[in-house]
Amino acid sequence: MSGTTDMTSTATLARPVDVRSMLAEVDELPSIPETLIRILKVLDDPASGPADLTRVVRMDAPVMAKVLRLANSPYYSSRGDLADINRCVAVLGYRTVRQVAICITVATSLISSVEKSGGQLDYRELWRHSVVTGAIAKHLARMTGYPDPEEAFTAGLLHDMGKFVLEVYAPQIYAKLIADRHLRRCSLSDLERETFGFDHAELGAAFAESWRFPALLVRSFGEHHQVIVGRARARHEQVAALVSLADYLANTFEPPRCDLGFDPTLTDPARLHETAGIPVELIEANRDALGDCIEKAGAFLQL
After folding, report:
1. Which DSSP state fits 254?
2. How many CB atoms lie within 10 A of CB 65?
């Protein structure tokens, strides 16, 4: 990586790195895709609607093909006949197609960058964990009556963007942090803050903000590891609480096949359930449904 990526030794990072300066200097990080810019403009415009979204998606053939493939997957529809983006919007709904398009453009760009980084983190397994977390967050949103389950899905799917960015920025150092976590008996977030001056949640939020994401998603990325006392009330707190619980459940229901930095002994499940407003008993009663939604969400693994 040219010049700035993986400064090869932690000595180089003796002083905390300014998160925004780091984002600006890593030239291998993808710039915001033009399609995502257009989608977010549609999102920001209260006068826009389904026709505006379909026009944007039609302009990017690869994105449109992926949207159509996912729209016809068991996760969204068993019809198999959604061959046109207009039909997708009509059958699945404007909000669903919009969130799918956002997830596709972001994931494709980040995964492509990580593939070139030469790091040791299993980014495919990290993406699988992200998909499982998104699927669980969406299901939890429906269980709690959250008004936009697709929003919760996007927040869950992209909650670990900061880890992808760190894998691009300092792949060798990041692999060492994950390995050292066992010896140090502390959380990965603590080691990230000690080494870089910020953790992956804060970095993910800064990256999302630089890509002009909606403020609610930016805050949910940044706060999914923060301690909230009592039941989450503000909307961004609700999303962060759903993602936090979904992240924990993803790590316990569908444990990663390699070390991604999760340590159950440093997690307080009771607090996560309380903050999300979802009792453990309700999760147990929905275990089969959660397993089904995780299996169907596997369509996102083939981006």
Report:
1. S
2. 11
Q: In angstroms, rounded to a whole number, what is the distance separating the alpha carbons of residues 282 and 284?
A: 5
Structure tokens at 100: 């799918």
- What are the boundaries of each domain within the chain? 23-302
Question: What is the average pLDDT across 260-285?
Answer: 92
Q: Could you give the CA distance from residue 208 to residue 229 in angstroms, rounded to a whole number?
A: 26
pLDDT at 11 over 70: no
Q: Which residue has the tokens 């493939």?
A: 69
∠227-137-258 over CA atoms, to 5°?
Answer: 80
Reported as a pLDDT band with limits 50, 70 and 90, residue 3 is very low
Share of the chain above pLDDT 90, in %: 56
Q: Which of 87-96, 260-269, 287-296 has the highest mean predicted lDDT (pLDDT)? A: 287-296
Q: Of 171, 191, 194, which Cα lies nearest the Cα of 181?
A: 191
Residue 233, pLDDT > 70, answer yes
Q: Please, are residues 120 and 256 in contact by the beta-carbon 8 Å criterion?
A: no
User: DSSP assignment, residue 75?
Assistant: T
157: its two tokens? 């799917």
Report the CATH fold assignment for 23-302: Hypothetical protein af1432 (1.10.3210)
Is residue 127 within 8 Å of residue 301, measured between CB atoms? yes
Place of tokens 């291998």: 28
Residue 212 near residue 125, CB atoms below 8 Å: no
- Distances in Å between the Cα of 108 and the Cα atoms of 73, 104, 278, 303 are 18, 6, 33, 7
Burial class (CB in 10 A: 0-12, 13-18, 19+), 80: exposed
Give the three-class secondary structure for 283: helix
Question: What's the pTM?
Answer: 0.89
Q: Which residue has the tokens 């909650």?
A: 159
